[in-house]
């Protein structure tokens, strides 16, 4: 494969990824008019809605909102409104596909949807569109569920699932960010403080996965995996809180990501893109971190050195993902992005192979983060 040409704007890259995802993965649920949902893979059955992955849909909604905000920054209110209406249909269709409810058994899933719904509400407000019962209901129901998972077990934090045997960063981080954005800074700080007390790896400055409660005795067992997205949600919460302690923590966290979560760039590159986590759920992880690095890069309370480090992490990851992209096949010009920023898509996802929504959303989210980073004022 011939590497893709480098000269292109962040907005053009984001638009290309949006078109690639929309054309290959999205459609009506079972062909029903007025619905909208994303397939989890491509190629897929002709009707959308067979396989189901709730939290991937939440991140698809986040990306749709990103595209709407990009259109709004460009002065394209019609394009922004079209994406806002699409997002509204998506929220309704998620509920329908999820057996007529917004809740499920995983609190981290619900936190992701709560964050995306809140951003959609803000996009609609920027377009002078009033809130809707659908969005208000989703936010209320999801927030209630998240608060119910905050208990004194293990000294604080948030349970991962309704089994209530695992408290972890994947649930606590996005829930803290959601509460911070709602203005409940006390609850958000308590969750962040718990993460720093119980799950911070002091040597690397990164957050571990969580603590399980095993067996009838509920014996504590640390799960020491380190994932990029866990750092991202904590970083997003810290810059949203914005107090001196939080910004100092954010400074150290950006440096830890730079020092421990990057890899060598593609051939001929001097950059250090963030490492990724393959496909499946892991195909989303690094895109989430990039989203919140872009927020940190624009925060005026952070030192210039920290903002520059965050910007470089975003730019290097974007450059690597763009370097490796290519057409779906010789007969299909639609683009595919590699799950690995240093392996071209032609090698990681050759023609005829199945491509997962998660990895393509990751690229789209990453490109949107750079587009937002180049724009002022910052958007969340």
UniProtKB/TrEMBL annotation:
Domain of life of the native organism: Bacteria
InterPro entries from the UniProt entry: 6-hairpin_glycosidase_sf, Glyco_hydro_76, MUG_Protein
Record protein name field: Putative alpha-1,6-mannanase (GH76 family)
Gene3D superfamilies: 1.50.10.20
GO BP, one annotated term: carbohydrate metabolic process
PANTHER family (UniProt xref): MEIOTICALLY UP-REGULATED GENE 191 PROTEIN
Pfam families: Glyco_hydro_76
């Amino acid at each position: 494969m011939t590497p893709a040409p480098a000269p292109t704007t962040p907005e053009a890259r984001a638009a290309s990824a949006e078109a690639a995802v929309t054309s290959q993965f999205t459609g009506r649920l079972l062909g029903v008019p007025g619905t909208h949902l994303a397939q989890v893979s491509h190629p897929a059955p002709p009707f959308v809605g067979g396989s189901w992955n709730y939290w991937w849909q939440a991140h698809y909604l986040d990306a749709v909102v990103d595209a709407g905000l990009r259109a709004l920054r460009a002065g394209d209110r019609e394009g922004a409104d079209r994406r806002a209406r699409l997002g509204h249909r998506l929220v309704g269709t998620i509920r329908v596909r999820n057996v007529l409810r917004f809740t499920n058994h995983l609190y981290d899933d619900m936190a992701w949807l709560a964050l995306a719904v809140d951003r959609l509400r803000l996009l609609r407000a920027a377009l002078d569109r009033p809130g809707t019962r659908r969005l208000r209901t989703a936010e209320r129901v999801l927030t209630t569920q998240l608060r119910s998972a905050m208990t004194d077990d293990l000294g604080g934090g948030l349970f991962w699932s309704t089994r209530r045997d695992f408290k972890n960063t994947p649930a606590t981080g996005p829930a803290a960010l959601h509460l911070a954005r709602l203005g409940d800074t006390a609850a958000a700080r308590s969750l962040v403080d718990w993460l720093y007390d119980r799950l911070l790896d002091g040597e690397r400055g990164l957050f571990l996965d969580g603590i399980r409660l095993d067996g009838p005795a509920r014996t504590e067992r640390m799960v020491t995996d380190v994932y990029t997205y866990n750092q991202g949600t904590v970083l997003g919460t810290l810059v949203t809180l914005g107090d001196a302690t939080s910004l100092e923590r954010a400074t150290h966290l950006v440096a830890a990501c730079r020092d421990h979560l990057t890899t060598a760039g593609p051939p001929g590159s001097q950059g250090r893109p963030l490492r990724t986590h393959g496909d499946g759920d892991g195909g989303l992880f690094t895109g989430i971190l990039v989203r919140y690095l872009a927020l940190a890069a624009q925060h005026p309370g952070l030192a210039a050195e920290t903002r520059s480090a965050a910007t470089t992490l975003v730019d290097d990851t974007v450059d690597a993902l763009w370097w490796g992209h290519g057409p779906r096949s010789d007969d299909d010009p639609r683009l595919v992005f590699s799950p690995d920023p240093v392996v071209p898509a032609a090698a990681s996802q050759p023609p005829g192979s199945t491509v997962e929504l998660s990895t393509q959303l990751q690229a789209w989210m990453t490109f949107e983060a750079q587009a937002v980073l180049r724009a002022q004022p910052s958007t969340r």
